[in-house]
Design a protein that fits this description.
Its main location: membrane. It is found in: Cell membrane. Residues 97-276 form the ABC transmembrane type-1 domain. It is a multi-pass membrane protein. By secondary structure, the chain is mostly helical. It has a domain at 96-281: Orthogonal Bundle (MetI-like fold), CATH 1.10.3720. The chain has helices spanning 2-6, 14-28, 30-53, 56-70, 75-90, 94-124, 126-141, 148-155, 159-183, 187-195, 200-211, 213-229, 231-234, 242-252, 255-284.
């Protein structure tokens, strides 16, 4: 009897509806997807080639100098950056590192550009919060592999769909932390700025965003880490970089090669994580 109640509504063809929607979007907006893919590929190729054109020693020294100053002139992060990047170069993975860095950098920048304004909107409107929050929940809980399907459908294979999939997966932390940071700004400060005749834009850019900077930077840090976590997954749809070496080692059951490529990803993750954290701590002082 109970089973009959559950079977009153026939099976809904969700998979078919999703396929139809994806096909419709792909066909209807191909005029947009194709130029975006072409231009992004050119831009990323130029960026990667420009970075690869710089001698590795110069990049290592520049990173070490930046690490030295943003860490408060301490040698821990500086030494780790030099040794870690040298190890990656020593293992013949420098070009893969540059490709991975390019993918993560572009995905992170796009996530921040999109995420911060949406977070500001959510902080200003409870209606927007109620609408956007479930979407963010969906984006964060959906298995990352699922994002590869529409990415390939819209942009084919290569680095562009990898950036697209990383963008979807990595944007929510920036949105959530921006919303949280602005909402946590002291109401007294906001009222004081209004009492002095500040406009909405002045209140946002001179009071709320500066006060919420620490929280927003924490969200950006998480966005960078999530974008980096997509490197191996994005390699399944042709994205170049260290993730492709990990995937190749997995397919061939080569534990050594997989370990070395994985160490390269770990080194890059630690450097980027410490950089964003140090920049945040430095601004707080």
């Amino acid at each position: 009897m109970l089973n009959n109640i559950l079977d009153v509504v026939p099976n809904m063809p969700l998979a078919k509806w999703t396929d139809n929607a994806t096909d419709w979007i792909t066909e209807s907006f191909s005029f947009l997807f194709d130029p975006v893919k072409e231009q992004f590929e050119k831009f990323m190729d130029v960026t990667s080639e420009a970075l690869m054109g710089v001698p590795p020693l110069i990049i290592i020294l520049v990173v070490a100098i930046i690490a030295f100053f943003i860490s408060g002139k301490k040698f821990g992060l500086t030494t780790f950056s030099i040794v870690g990047l040298w190890l990656i170069y020593n293992q013949g993975l420098w070009d893969q590192l540059i490709n991975t860095f390019t993918l993560v950098l572009l995905a992170s920048i796009l996530s921040v550009i999109i995420g911060v304004p949406i977070g500001i909107l959510m902080s200003k409107s409870n209606i927007a919060t109620a609408i956007i929050t479930p979407i963010l929940d969906f984006m964060q809980t959906m298995p990352a592999f699922v994002y590869l399907i529409p990415a390939v459908a819209f942009f084919g294979i290569g680095m562009v769909p990898g950036v697209f999939a990383s963008l979807i997966f990595a944007t929510p932390p920036t949105v959530r932390f921006t919303n949280l940071g602005i909402r946590q700004v002291s109401a007294e400060l906001v009222e004081a700025s209004e009492a002095f005749g500040s406009t909405g834009a002045q209140k946002l850019f001179k009071v709320e965003l500066p006060m919420a900077k620490s929280t927003i930077m924490a969200g950006i840090n998480q966005t960078v880490m999530l974008a980096l976590s997509m490197v191996v997954i994005a390699s399944m749809i042709g994205a170049p970089g260290l993730g492709r070496d990990v995937l190749s080692a997995l397919q061939r059951a080569e534990a050594g090669a997989g370990f070395v490529a994985g160490i390269g990803i770990v080194i890059l993750a630690i450097i980027m994580d410490r950089f964003t954290q140090s920049m945040n701590n430095r601004k707080e002082k």
